[in-house]
Amino acid sequence: MISLIYGAKGSGKTKRIIDAANDSVTGSNGNVIYVSDRAYSGQLSRDIRFIDSTEYGIKNAVAAMGFLKGILASDNDITDVFVDGLARIADSAVADMGDFFSELEKLSISDKVDFTVTVSLDVLPDFLRKYV
User: Which of 1, 5, 33, 115 is 20 to 30 A from 127 via CA?
Assistant: First the structure.
């Protein structure tokens, strides 16, 4: 499953995804991962693994997908992945990420992992509406 948190910059998306990540820990039967290019780890439960994406040189959506697949390949017990600022991390316009989200949906199904992502947009492209 993919869940999308969206809104304009400064609308509280990061607080909502942090709250969702912290809430997921209590109901998860596995590991919870939080990926961001910003340091919010102090606000996260200590049971969540925080990954700073800036340490990995992600330059585009293809690299971002490879990065997420690598995370899942390293730990078969991951149940939830939270990605704060996906388009910023992938250095891509959200409108150009249709293929990325199709691949993410396949990954979610094949690896039985729930993804929650934030994007800064006022109006969603049609391909993202099903994730809200």
Answer: 33
Least Cα distance to 105 among 65, 52, 53 occurs for: 65
CA-CA-CA-CA dihedral for 1, 15, 35, 40, to nearest 10: -160
Q: How far apart are CA 71 and CA 28, in angstroms?
A: 17
Continuous H helices in 1-132: 13-27, 61-74, 86-90, 98-111
Ordered structural domains, the chain, with CATH: 2-131 (3.40.50.300)
| DSSP 8-state assignment for residue 40 | -
pLDDT tens digits in sequence order for the chain, 132 residues long: 999 999 988 888 999 999 999 999 988 889 999 999 987 656 899 999 999 999 999 999 999 999 999 999 999 999 999 999 999 999 999 999 999 999 999 999 999 999 999 999 988 999 999 998
What is the token pair recorded at 89? Answer: 């991390």
**Tokens 């293809």 sit on residue:** 62
How far apart CA 101 and CA 115 sit, in angstroms, is 11
